[in-house]
Protein 1
Amino acid sequence: MSELLTQPPPPPREGHFELAVYMRQQSRIYGLTLGSVLEIGRAVECQIRLDDPSVSRNHARLYVGSEIEIEDLGSANGTTLVRAPSLEDHRDDTGSDAHRPLEQHRRVHLQPGDVLRIGAVIVVLQRKGRSSLSELKSPSDAVVSRPPVLVDPDMRRAYELVARAAASDISVLILGETGVGKEVTAEALHRASPRRDSPFLRLNCAALPESLLESELFGHERGAFTGAHALKVGLLEATDGGTVFLDEIGELPLGTQAKLLRVLEERMVTRVGSTKPKRIDVRFVTATNRDLSKEVKNGRFRGDLYYRISGLVVRLPALRQRPSEVEPLARHFLRGFCERSGQPEPELLAPALERLKTHQWPGNVRELKNVMERAALLANQGVITEEEILLEQPEPEPDLNDIDDDFDSDTAVFHAPDPSLLDRSEKGERDRIVRALELCGGNQTRAAKMLGVSRRTLINRLEQFNLPRPKKG
């Protein structure tokens, strides 16, 4: 059992404790000297300066004595304490661990492992020289499960925050581009938490149509709407005791946002067609590739929901920002694919590796995984050369002049001698349609615009010439 869970923290000794500050994907360590009083804020004269707009000029004060104490100095955005777990902790009726805003101008004792949210900046009190991963464990001494490769310093810091968050029920918001590994991070948090033996629900908010999202999340009673032939238990209710991971939460419709906010605040769900709420005990982890603060300003995301889900924010850097992980990740994906498919692992030659390292990876880790699996299939004579590294390039805009000399690229309208395609020979008309669709990547709307006809006319011609319809435009 961890010492942190069974014994009270020892009194501070000279240089024994430090503050780890996490701000904008960067971290900084401040040593604490016994007997010192440290001002925390945005002002230049503060000993612990947090240059972030969410932090007040003189935000808080830290007292380092026989005990370490924090005092909020009347800040605009407040200071929140997430208490490190101990045997004396008690959950409230919502199932949350100690996680509370500090009362202004009142000192509060801190202990190793405590996390402070000062505005939007995360500050951790820890023993000197010990990382967050070794400092804090969940009640069963579980260590957060890491991704297969964890080399980049920013990724290490992100997973240190995940390790701290796992032991409590604080809501976690994971930010990062598409394909960067947000779901892997959420699952790692769940596996390290006391809820690890309970369900882990993954739900992509952008994948479900609005008409089904509410029914899927909250469930419905029989007869609640047309097609509701039987009672349906919602996904939130079915995950009772576990963790709910809401990916792409920035895509939630505003109406559903309001209902989700009530669930977060009350830990109660009401099925569609019912008036009787049901209590649930779930931990929420959310993720998005959007800038939610901008979405709030633009009225596309509720501010109250944003502040409720962002108890702790973990930012994952894009793969192009952590080049040290490209090679080890590539070799990991290559090895894993070959093991699953029962084929020998080919050698990754230096030119192929160089091609991987210079790519910008707009699709991030997910793109790298696809590239390596494809390279394994294409490898000849047990080696992967740069020829087998097929990288997605930005799709060039079609050269509209390739369609016909009569095409005016400025007006993006095809000027046929006759406005109707019907007067052309069938073969020429068919070839022109096929060419337009090829240049537009199968997008029917763009192809119709290129040809100077309506989309409906284009569809009629596809049926007339027995051409397969590509993806809908």
Protein 2
Amino acid sequence: MGGATALRLAERVLADPRRDEDADATWNLLLCLDPDGLRRNEGWLQGPYTLGRYFRNFFRPGFLEQPEWLPDGADRATLPETRALLDLQDELRPFLQCSLHGVDVGGGFAELTHDLPGFPRRLAHTAARLGIPRELGPYDTLYWPRLGPAVYLIPPPRRGDLAAAITEAAVESTWFHPYRYGTVTAVVEAPMWGVAAVEDDTIPADAAAVLRTVSRALRHDSRLLARLLTRLRHHLPATQETARLLAPVDDYVLVCPGLADTWDPDIVTADAHPLPPLSTAHLATLRIAGRRLALRTAGLLHRLVAGSGRDPAGVLPELDRLIDLWCADYRDGCGARWIPVARQVEYQSRVVLAAFDLASRHPRAGSRSGEQGWGSEAAVPMHRE
């Protein structure tokens, strides 16, 4: 959807030249930051859009091969996609960069490196007009400051181990790289399947009971998937494609037990972050996040077996059963409902234009001649002439 949003934005900018004359702006559109990852998702992109089809054809690179992350710093970045984006940021020194993301199940929200006063109200208006649920307690932002409903402040990067980096985005990133130029980065998340409960900000009657259920489910599911992976691993061909699919599986298997312990109110560890006060929306999001980790792992394992054309470990029937069961929980237990692509794109493009309107009125002090930038899939920069 990021690429479709970029094209929609180009249409809107060309159709209304006064918008950019007032801001003296040039838009630079990056249709896709990760073409290899996009190609590996082609199996579900044309539909039919069902949860089962999506997760059986899902791909996301392992953490170390996601172009937006800089776990070893910008100077040591090796992915060509990352180097191209960093060079573009250094050349343009944009005042705004928008990174366009899709949420598979949940609601819409945004993450900013600087406050944009008025932005939460604009996002709320757009979401209400288009019937998009706002995610008021995203798992991604569980420990981050809130700038307004469904709008969160990205904290500065800090050093941490790999598990913390994967779960807390605690490393350097292309979101923060242009911060030195005064760039505002807006990460705009738009959902494919919406869940109404993610915008329920009421106080739950028994949060601890829900957390126990969610953490125990994740712990059970991750152990089950780890056993299936052990049965399967030595049967897999030693190919580059196998390594690409196994990398995110190993990431998920690594982080799931720790997350389950973090969410369990009966387990307290010395290095754990205490959970913030939780709303019903937070609990719904944690349930979705735990199920997402299990489904992504099962889907990637399914791809490994189905793609090889043989199942010597006999795991495919069990993986099919688990995927169907967990997708049914999303659909029937969480009330996940498909949002048409055109509406997803309209929501995301309107939120980007709101960020542009606000950022163009208040260029940051570090911006070179008021340059601006913004992104699609991972970054679409623009700059003032």
Protein 3
Amino acid sequence: MKKLFVLTGAGMSVESGLSTFRDADGLWENYPVARVATHEAWLQDPVYVNDFYNMLRKKLLAAEPNEGHRLVAALEREYDVTVVTQNVDNLHETAGSSHVIHLHGELMKTCSSRDVDNPRYWRTMTAGDTDVAPGEKAGDGSLLRPYIVFFGEAVPNISVAADYAQQADIFVIIGTSLNVYPAAGLVQYARPSTPVYLIDPKPVMAAGRHDVRHIMKGASDGMRELSGILLGK
């Protein structure tokens, strides 16, 4: 079974009603990065930071996977699919994708603020348990924080993702500007012979690759076209 690598960004979830961070009227316009997505912000005002992610969890629980998510999941019938996402939502999993690597963390998880990547202290939030209360602590006694990779923090899963990128027989990019590193550099790990498909309605520069087939559509329309190509329909 051929190995299919799918890298997704914020544009993957726009049709599900989730705001992007960088576009006009994106989340960063209303909630500056420096206040909600840096380690310094967390140290300065952990309650404000947790409240922001409490709000995002409620928005996520009201969202549903779109057809793009479902079509990515459906490719598992014919391909060995690895999804690497820059998104912190769980819509790929909800749509049925079985192998999803999150680069920037997971919104529905919280963790220790002292030992972020220790799964022993992770807590998976649910529909009835979306909020981290002020002063709430993880199992190691530190404040509970979102399991999100803040700006300036290391991306623990990037080396794992790079390994899968190197093994890919087909490389697909959906809904990302390829401006955010290290995720944007993953396409450089694809073998020169590996076909690269890019789904995004806007012009995107795939760093280091000049042979990219660009499908200038949104996630769902683009995945319909790509599914036809990959499944020979």
Protein 4
Amino acid sequence: MSPVQHPAIQPFDGPSVCLFCGSSEAAHADYIQVARDFGAAMATRSWRLVYGGGGVGLMGASARAAHEAGGKVLGIMPNFLRSRERLFDDVETLVVDTMHERKILMYDQSDAFVVAPGGVGTLEEVVELLSWKRLDLHAKPVIFLNTHGFWATFFALMEHSVAEGMTPPSFLQAWDVCDTVEEAADLLARRFSEAASTRALKYDQR
């Protein structure tokens, strides 16, 4: 499914990757560095970084790194969080009315999703995204950046849900896990290449 273009958003001709991550300034320095490395990797690959629009925590670190490396960045921020998450207006940023609108636009504007360490907001975003995938509403790649095993307990919860008969075993294939930014970027490149090949094959068969 192609990204939906919002009239207020500048067109971008290339892959876009949404980063879900924490906004806490108290995050461990290693997590902040991973966010910086991820932002820089997006710029190096000429991919657009789509994120929550904030200038704090991992969010701010990733956006600044991508911007400083010459990359394209799109932030989407609900109006009521402008002061709390400190809008980072050095990059293209769209201010919307609600969290729901933010998440829909982040989804529409992205071809894949990476989930870095974060708090309850990050967890809420990725659970909704995986729920949509469980319902076959999308097939976009979802990659957990599992720095220092941050997401291990979440994976254990999902496995417990499967073991208790609440979730089908196939759901455990709905995401990939990478330990480093380099692994995640390489996997994204393969997924984008596979998607391009599939589109070309469908076109040839018309």
